[in-house]
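Researcher: Re-running this chain for the archive, since the previous output was lost when a drive failed. Same request as before.
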Amino acid sequence: MEITKGKIQKAKKVVIYGPEGIGKSTFAAQFPGAVFIDTEGSTNDMDVARLPRPTSWNMLLDEINYIKTHPAECKTLIIDTIDWAESLCVEHICAIHDKKGIEDFGYGNGYVYAKEEFGRFLNKLSDLIEIGINVVLTAHAQLRKFEQPDELGAYDRWELKLGKKTQSQTSPLVKEWADMLLFANYKTFSIAVGKDGKKHKGQGGKRTMYTQHHPCWDAKNRYGLPEECEFDYSVIADIIGGTNTVAPEPVKEGKQQIEIQKPAKDNDFMNIPKNIDEKVDFDTGEKIEETKKEPKVEDSVFHIADYIPKALRDLMYPNLVSEEELMEAVYQRGFFPRGTPFQNLPQEFVEGCLIGAWPQVLDVIKTIRSSYEVPFDK
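Model: Regenerated structure tokens:
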């Protein structure tokens, strides 16, 4: 064992929440090398790098795994927003257990399942921190009546707008996980009007960021930020810029072909061509650079029928899983007789088994593929 002293420079875990339209996505976009996983489509009009919008919980996890195995393409991963991501989590839990809602489990078991799955999700994000990638979670805020057990009366306070039924389980996990929990709001001043000064009206609207706990909101930071400051990235730029962890080389894993949609900006590290092999002209001795363009799924002849739900197609495309391979896995596991067309599969089976348990389905398909491989005799 070795005892170490001093600060350890690592990537940062940041949660930004506030009312709609205050600029959470714009604020997050200023982090270095930002790549969005846009769960709600709020960045459509922003010039940012993004992964495809996840249509299922498993697709969201696949995109996190893609960033983990391709760290050179991302310095900051932004999930915008975490409350919409939680909805995917709850849908996933209900689908794999064949339930219509989180309360159908009984005895509060559904909330426990959601908490455990969300905890594993945060652990995956922590893996990115270990390889030097910042993680930013944005969330909406909501007002909730709060009553302290040792005080009389109640008051309103701002909290993360997570699921109404699951908030008490997942919200504490998110707040404990973060290094910085930043609350952004419009600062309004109450001005007395009238002769007697008894009437008041609101005036102002300055965007303000709160970084420390207050009876009326949750916030925290570990870097000595002022309790109240302007909602501007420059306030935390030095803290984020202090992360100098060098990311490891990408790890090859399967046939992932998720493409990051990049912004059209000059001098942006996202626009640097990848996979460039250096060659030398033997006549002049100069280096020749050739850019290898990785094949895109949409540019190839590979196609999946439109009658397959989009959430399932989004999981099939990155691994080039055909409808025939998918149905072969269904037949071999004995779920339905051989020859049953995909159109005859019940919706609850598609959502709960094929989409909900996609990692296990993919393992079966990979086993089937390996059985087709013919050994090469020298």
